[in-house]
Each structure stands twice: as C-alpha cells, then as structure tokens.
Specification:
Layout lengths: L10 H14 L3 H4 L3 H6 L1 E4 L2 E4 L7 H13 L2 H9 L26 E2 L2 E2 L1 H20 L12 E5 L6 H10 L3 H6 L4 E5 L4 H8 L7 E6 L6 H18 L4 H4 E4 L3 H7 L6 E2 L14 H11 L1 H20 L6 H15 L4 E7 L6 H13 L17 E3 L11 H6 L5 E6 L15 H18 L3 H6 L7 H4 L7 E6 L4 H22 L10 H20 L8 H13 L15
Parallel strand pairs: 5-6, 5-7, 7-8, 8-9, 10-11, 10-12, 12-13
Antiparallel strand pairs: 1-2, 2-13, 3-4
Helix pairs in contact: 1-4, 6-13, 7-13, 7-16, 13-14, 14-21, 15-21, 16-21
C-alpha cells in the first residue's frame, strides 16, 4: 500500500465492508455451536490461553482481516519499528520501547547505533543505586535509612508504574522483598494529592524520585518544588541532594534544582511517555520498592511478548490477533468502546493505564501523512476488576449498548483463601463469574426460554437478553512479575497494530498540547489579578464569568502568600 493511500480505499477494506452483511445474519449462539471454528480461535503461548471464539466473526472474517493486514503492510511496519526506523514521523523519532527490555546481548539500532548497551548502563546504575538504598548503605541527611519513596510524575510517568506496583503488591515473592517499605505516586497538581502522599511519611526517611524528561513539565515540577520545600523545611536545603533523585535527560536543570546530576537516570527520545514503564521511569521506583531482581523478571516477561510479536505467524500472534479484532469491532461493526475486565483485584490499575496507552495513541483524526480520515479510529477504553464491575456497569453491557469486552483471568490466585465447609474457594467463586459472563453476553436469553421458566408475561421484555455481544478471554497461569510484563506488552503491541492498520501515528500526542497552552494564559491572568489587582480580560464571556467567580471565592488568598504545606 502506497503511503498516501488510505486503508479504507483498499480492496481488503471494501471486502470486509461487503462481508458485514454475512455477519449481520449470524448470531453467536450459532457460531459457538461450531466446534471446529471455536478450536481455530484459541491460541496458546507460554502458558497463557487466548479464546476469541465469542467475537462476531467467522473463519472467513479472520482470513479477510489477514488480507487487510497485508494491505496495510503490517509485517513491514512491525519490522520497521523493531529496526529503529523513525516511524514517529511527526516528531522524527524511532519507537523503541522494545529495547528497554531487550537482553543484554541483543542488537537494536537507532540511527545506526546499538542502543541496548545504553539501556543496560542505566539498568545497571538503577540496580546499584536501589541496592544501596535498600541495604541502608545510602542514607538520608540524618543518617536514617530511606524506606519510603514518593515518585513524582504524570501521565505515562505515573499510570504505568502504578499499574505494575499495584499488581505486585500482593504477589508473594514481590511482597517479601517490599517488606517495611512504601511506594507512593504523586501525579495530580491538586494540593490534595500532595497531602495524601506525604501523610504518614517523614522527610528524614523519604526518598523522592522526580520523573520529567525535560525537567519542565508544569505539574510535575510544581509538585517537585513542593516536596523540596517539605524536605528543606524539616532538614535544611542541603538535605535535598540526599533525599531527591531524578529520571531526566536535562542534567543542567536537574543540578539547578538541587539534585546531584550523578543521581539522574536517563531515558531517550525514542521512548514515548506512555510506553516508558520499562525505562527508568518505572524501573527505578519499582526497584527501590521490590528490588531489581523482581523488576528484571517483569522486563523479561515483556521481552518474551516482544519476541512473540516480532516472529510468530499472524494466526498464532496474540497482539496481532487482538489488534485486528479491535479494528473489526471499531471500524466495521461500529462499536466505539472496549471494556477491560480483569478478574483479579491486583489488576485494578490496568484499565486506567491501557486507557491512556490506547486513547492517547490512537485517538487521531488524520493519517500519518496528515490526510483527514473518513472513518473513526481509537477506542473508548474503561474497566474495573470483576466482580466489582458486574455490580456497576454490566447492566449496560448486557442489555444496553454493545461494548466488546476483554475478560482477563488468572488461574492461580496470588493470595488463595480456603474456608472449611464452603462449596468453592474464594478464587473459584471469582472465576465462576469469569467463565459465565462471556457466555451470558454471547448467548443471551430468549423470550421463549423465559416463558418455559414461567416468568410473568409483563416481565419477559425486561428479562430478555439479546446476546450476540462480543468478548474475548485471556487466561494467564498466574500473576507474578513475569506475567505482569507479558500483559503490558500484549496490550502495547495490540494498540500499535491497530494504529498500523488504520495508517495513523500511534506514537505522538499533539492533542494534549492545546489545553496546556491555553492554561498558560489563564495562569498569567490569575497571577496578574491576585498580585496586581488587574481585571480579567481577553477571554470569552463564559470563561471570564467563571474566572471572576473563582477569584471572588478565593479573595482571601494573599497577593504574596508565605509558604504553606498540607496540614493533615
């Protein structure tokens, strides 16, 4: 496919559009009765099992999706990414998060240079530093060990590491290494987030990790200055170098801030924020909490999926299959949303992370060449762990809008519970729902079935379930650091596949810039109004009215207030 050709103009796309009529005549009740079809729609890799037989697709659909992948040059685009070509063309950058978890002897090029040695230099530095902190060889200004860590960052510098941390907290091996330690994440510039993060902590035993590539991100740097003041007020300004480190490439600003540049951990332009969990952004705070050996297993898990994604044939390639099915659901069946439903409380922060990775990557309106798209891209991602979600939004999923669902199950619980005399264990109870919900969505319940059950006639319309609602199930053998890495990489690559098919740039995020630039104007106005009493001007009527109301409600704020930190 020529780069200027939109994927919707290809014969493969048109063939799938024509194929829709065949699919609309089918129901999942009938499709699920075909054992051969169901068997063909199961894929195993490294102990995990993907079952996509409950998608509204036939084997013919899947073959047509492979033709679409061919028309979109999917295999070539995957290879270009792994080869370090500058596929992020709007920012003229390589996209090499796969290099962050490559083995030490791997060769991955960017601009003719093997970047893997640089990656491992940083990983070795993190290992050495985290071991010194954890062992008590590195101490704070008062000589006390630093047992608590606050990582300051926002967006990709926060959601990914928080997901991994939450997933590992209850893993027996990781929990053993984290005993007596705390890891917290400060993201929001809202002072309430500061208050919540420092409550119960003491500056003398706290290490702060400031994550900002340029060391200029407005929210992150204001939070960093706030915690610097918290440390300085208790221990003196000289304590900052002992209690604050940085993940940044701007060593000049790091040093100017008061952090020793030797305690700055690098990452690179070819790492996008939302793809940076496996860089120092995530590896440093996670290693401080769990030890580098646990985090290295997480990296190996992600790397195993990288190799699978790169080399497995498409019919056995889990990220490719998931990406193609998402394109089918969004662009052909017209389902704009996706529910991510992990039946594991340890994965409660997985959906929020994938929400950012997916919606920031694929929420685009133009092709990679800047051509407006005549079709929708991206998905509206949301989710909650089962069974919590069942008592929240499953009503809509079963009887309202059709929302394709990802059910993620774990065979062995991190924390099994058995009660004598109970019919099943707690985990079996949870997993009973994991297995039941996809069938409930697929088959539904007909008026005829309800009549046979002698349901009151006036309730039959209310108790009828149309079914034919697509889902897929992914069953992992367990949830340890290795599996967490695998799950992350599966979704990262799935999202890339969608973007490659749609012909968009999944690795820039210009949509976040406009709001930030307008906030700069508001910031200047607030300062001018508070410090000099200047009137609100140059905004539209609505914004002017709201700003005036805000300034009136906070008129007790002094023009030049003294330092005030949270009082909890």
């Amino acid at each position: 496919m020529a780069s200027s050709t939109l994927i919707c103009d290809t014969e493969a796309w048109k063939d799938l559009k024509d194929h829709l009529d065949d699919i609309k005549k089918t129901h999942l009740r009938d499709l699920m009765s075909d054992t051969g079809r169901c068997q063909s729609m199961m894929v195993e890799f490294d102990g995990m099992l993907l079952d996509y037989s409950r998608q509204r697709a036939t084997l013919d659909t899947i073959n047509k999706l492979y033709k679409l992948a061919e028309a979109a040059s999917l295999k070539e685009k995957i290879h270009r990414m792994f080869n370090g070509e500058r596929i992020n063309s709007t920012e003229n950058r390589s996209v090499l998060h796969v290099a962050l978890r490559a083995s030490r002897d791997a060769v991955i090029q960017s601009d003719g240079k093997n970047v893997v040695p640089d990656v491992w230099n940083v990983l070795d530095k993190i290992k050495e530093f985290s071991e010194r902190v954890r062992s008590g060889a590195w101490v704070g200004a008062t000589g006390k060990a630093l047992k608590d860590v606050v990582a300051i960052g926002i967006g990709g510098s926060f959601l990914g590491p928080l997901f991994v941390h939450t997933a590992l907290q209850t893993d027996p091996e990781a929990a053993k290494w984290a005993k007596g330690r705390q890891l917290r994440f400060l993201a929001n510039v809202d002072p309430i987030d500061v208050a919540r993060n420092i409550t119960g902590l003491y500056p003398e035993t706290t290490l702060v990790v400031v994550v900002s590539k340029t060391f200029t991100t407005a929210e992150t740097m204001l939070n960093a200055r706030t915690l610097r003041e918290w440390i300085s007020a208790a221990l003196g300004p000289s304590a900052v170098a002992k209690h604050m480190v940085a993940v940044s490439t701007n060593l000049t600003l790091v040093e100017k801030f008061g952090i020793d540049p030797n305690n700055a951990f690098a990452f690179w332009d070819w790492v996008g924020g939302r793809y940076s969990v496996c860089s120092a952004v995530g590896v440093l705070p996670l290693s401080l909490q769990y030890g580098f050996s646990v985090v290295e297993k997480f990296l190996k898990g992600a790397s195993s999926i990288d190799q699978h994604f790169y080399s497995a044939p498409f019919e056995k390639n889990i990220p490719v299959l998931l990406g193609l099915l998402s394109v089918w659901n969004v662009s052909f069946l017209g389902y704009p949303a996706r529910a991510i439903l992990p039946y594991s409380q340890a994965l409660e922060k997985f959906a929020p992370h994938i929400q950012q990775v997916s919606m920031e990557s694929n929420g685009k309106g133009v092709s990679i060449d800047g051509v407006p798209l005549p079709f929708e891209t991206g998905e509206i991602d949301f989710g909650e762990p089962g069974t919590n979600g069942q008592h929240s939004f499953y009503q809509l999923i079963h009887q309202g809008r059709v929302i394709p669902c990802d059910f993620i199950g774990i065979a062995k619980s991190q924390q099994p519970v058995y009660l004598k005399g109970e019919v099943v264990s707690n985990h079996d109870e949870l997993m009973s729902n994991f297995f039941a919900q996809p069938d409930a969505l697929a088959y539904g319940k007909t008026p005829e079935e309800l009549q046979k059950e002698n349901v009151n006639q006036n309730l039959i319309p209310h108790k009828t379930f149309s079914g034919n609602r697509p889902s897929l199930s992914l069953l992992l053998p367990q949830l340890n650091a290795y599996n967490v890495g695998q799950l992350l990489a599966i979704y990262e690559h799935r999202i890339a596949v969608q973007g490659f098919i749609w012909g968009i740039n999944s690795f820039d995020q210009w949509g976040v810039e406009l709001g930030k630039s307008l906030a700069t104007r508001v910031r200047k106005q607030l300062h001018a109004s508070r410090a000099k009493g200047e009137p609100v001007e140059s905004f539209n009527f609505s914004t002017t009215t709201m700003l005036k109301r805000y300034l009136e409600a906070t008129s007790d704020v002094p023009a030049d207030p003294p330092t005030l930190l949270p009082q909890i």
